[in-house]
Amino acid sequence: MTELIRQGITRRRLLTGTAAVASGAVAGLGHGTAVAAADVLRPRMLRPGDTVRLVSPASSPSAAAVRRGEELLRGWGLEVEYGEHALDSYGYLAAADADRLADLNAALADPTVRGVICTRGGYGVQRIVDGVDRRAVRQDPKPVVGFSDITGLQLWLWRNAGLATIHGPMAAWDDARTGPESAEALRAALMTTDRITLKRNPDELGADVEVPGRATGILLGGNVSLLAAAVGNRELPGLRGAILFLEDVGEAPYRLDRMLTQMRRSGVLDGVAGIALGQWVDCVGAPGTWTVSEMLRDRLGDLGAPILGGLPIGHGAGQLTMPLGVPATLDTAAGTLTAEPAVRDVSSARAAA
């Protein structure tokens, strides 16, 4: 999305409509319904020698940046394949809708592919997400990595298949933004079953937003623009009892206000257990208007849920990785968000049996 913003093309100019392809939903994961740990479908963790496939369900990535990401993944002992259209370009999309969807579904269905890593966000997931092969996801769950526009896919995968996913840096790797700590965080989320704990960074925009308390629940959410665009559509799961994670980039506070107000009015924020705030990159308003922190306090502070700001997840420098669709605990006194892994160790389970 940062590249599109530099070009003057922002998500608010691109979020227009979706491909209307019929798709069923998992019973009990619909709008307004509480979620439970028993609903979580965890793929197995990756091991050296496993194959991951890079796909571009949204905008076209920089080929050079993707090659850097491939180098990183191979350094972890993984084999890397490319979706047929992963490096293509089609207007502001990576490829035509049918081609992007075919690449994604092929990766989800191929038994030799053990992980699916998106190359970048931008825009385009909304146009294809209703055609995702739910049966393939349920029969052979795999880690799916992405953020930004990929939020739409991650929401759909949770609501329609119960799949835990990974919110983290994508294959179009930027060493200046995501250094060794970011790389290690992503590797750990994919290749270990360790719990993940993020600590509040007081230097992050919005770190001063807090409603004291402690909450547990399924961690869901992502990019605010995509969450707001999902209201009324097939990808938005129920958030009652969940810990809601929010972040965004390049949106003025009043625009974020509009999105959060839409979510409030629709009722999707009713009953959230806690709110985890990530990075708010370039979310700055005109002089004399509310800051993003002031806006967040106004729109979220009266929901009756603990709020923790300043978490290093989102579009900013030093972006870390966090599982989505898993049980998590938010603790404002400790300044931490701790989540169960998105993946499971199949070898340990077999040994125990």
Describe this structure in words.
The chain is of the alpha/beta class and 353 residues long. The chain has one domain (34-345): Rossmann fold (3-Layer(aba) Sandwich), CATH 3.40.50. It is built from twelve helices and 14 strands. Residues 1-30 have low confidence and may be disordered. The protein has helices at 2-6, 11-14, 63-75, 97-109, 125-128, 134-139, 151-161, 180-191, 224-230, 253-266, 292-300, 346-352, and strands at 51-55, 79-82, 115-118, 144-146, 165-167, 196-199, 210-211, 214-223, 243-249, 274-281, 307-308, 322-324, 326-331, 336-339. The relative contact order is 0.17. The longest helix is centred in the last third of the chain and has 14 residues, at 253-266. α9 (224-230) runs parallel beside α10 and α10 runs parallel beside α11.
Instruction: Calculate the terminal CA-CA distance, rounded to whole Å.
Output: 46 Å
Query: How much beta, percentage-wise?
Result: 15-25%
Identify the CATH architecture: 3-Layer(aba) Sandwich
Low-confidence parts, pLDDT < 50 over ≥5 residues? 1-30
Give a topology summary:
Blueprint: H1 2-6, H2 11-14, E1 51-55, H3 63-75, E2 79-82, H4 97-109, E3 115-118, H5 125-128, H6 134-139, E4 144-146, H7 151-161, E5 165-167, H8 180-191, E6 196-199, E7 210-211, E8 214-223, H9 224-230, E9 243-249, H10 253-266, E10 274-281, H11 292-300, E11 307-308, E12 322-324, E13 326-331, E14 336-339, H12 346-352
Parallel strand pairs: 1-2, 1-3, 3-4, 4-5, 8-9, 9-10, 10-11
Antiparallel strand pairs: 5-12, 6-14, 7-11, 8-13, 13-14
